[in-house]
Design goal:
Length: 272
């Protein structure tokens, strides 16, 4: 579009900043960082390092697409620019804003067992509080309200994938949204990444040899031109252990929502 050409003033060999042609929209704690890092193994991908929060933070959105562009990495013409901001998925104002930027944008959504995602979400927020030396309630206090689960607990709501996805499907066809199975990405990343390459119409360049299981980390790590790296220690945290009865209730809570989600996307996931 002409907008990009107007703003892409500093051009050398076609290297310039470009608006993202693909966005990892979430879900928070689904494995969004792993997905972005793994996608960055591809030579035709240029990824924004930090979460940009353009469409969900008013103080950013107000500054317009010129600001958004300025946050993007330098890329060459054959590269796809990608950014990830997991908060986009659950922010109701975001789908329309993304659509207005580019109705043909390709969206990546990585989902994970919704109960596991709640535990992961809790572990992250707890960690943030501990770091600031602030108190934080035990998960039981947030999850349970009497004999029921507390629907106002934000982490529960964020795992209601069908509800959030509906907001996106008002603007984008399902074929514009590729679902990455976050549980599979943990267990066996390569096949999931091959599917992502196909969806993005990238040449198959990511290899099985780019991944090796690190026993100490307990997760796959990346190997890129002889360089080994694992994700930051904040990825792959211990989750709180729930009393079996509460865990059963948590899983049951997502039973119907999951069915709705499977119907919406025309596929199933092996979640509890
Ligand atoms: P946990 O820390 O709860 O295990 P996000 O980047 O969206 O915040 O997601 C974090 C999650 O990515 C982690 O949640 C972890 O399970 C998952 N993950 C997937 N692949 C990973 C990998 N190779 N290394 C570390 N974490 C990975």
């Amino acid at each position: 579009g002409s907008f990009q050409e107007d703003l892409g003033a500093v051009v050398t060999n076609g290297s310039t900043q470009r608006l993202p042609q693909t966005i990892i929209i979430g879900v928070r704690k689904g494995g969004t960082r792993a997905l972005l890092e793994m996608l960055s193994l591809h030579p035709d991908v240029a990824a924004a390092e930090n979460e940009v929060h353009f469409f969900d933070w008013e103080e950013h959105y107000r500054q317009g697409l010129g600001w958004y562009l300025s946050q993007m990495p330098v890329s060459s013409p054959h590269q796809l620019t990608v950014e990830k901001t997991p908060a986009y998925f659950t922010s109701p104002q975001v789908p329309e804003r993304v659509y207005r930027m580019n109705p043909a944008v390709r969206l990546l959504l990585i989902v994970r067992d919704p109960s596991e995602r709640v535990l992961s979400d809790y572990a992250q927020v707890l960690h943030n509080h501990v770091q600031k030396r602030k108190p934080f309630p035990p998960i039981e206090a947030l999850l349970a309200r009497g004999s029921r689960l507390n629907p106002d607990y934000k982490a529960l709501n964020r795992s209601l994938y069908h509800a959030h996805l509906r907001a996106w499907l008002r603007f984008f066809p399902l074929r514009s949204i590729h679902l990455v199975d976050g549980d599979r990405l943990i267990r066996d990343p390569f096949p999931e990444m091959q599917k992502v390459e196909r969806f993005l119409q990238l040449a198959p360049q990511i290899n099985a040899s780019n991944f090796y299981f690190n026993k100490t980390k307990g997760f796959y790590c990346l190997r890129d031109s002889g360089r080994d790296r694992c994700l930051h220690e904040s990825k792959g945290r211990a989750h709180p252990r729930l009393d079996p009865e509460l865990l059963r209730r948590l899983r049951e809570y997502f039973h119907e929502p999951n069915k709705k989600f499977f119907k919406l996307v025309g596929r199933t996931f092996d979640w509890h």
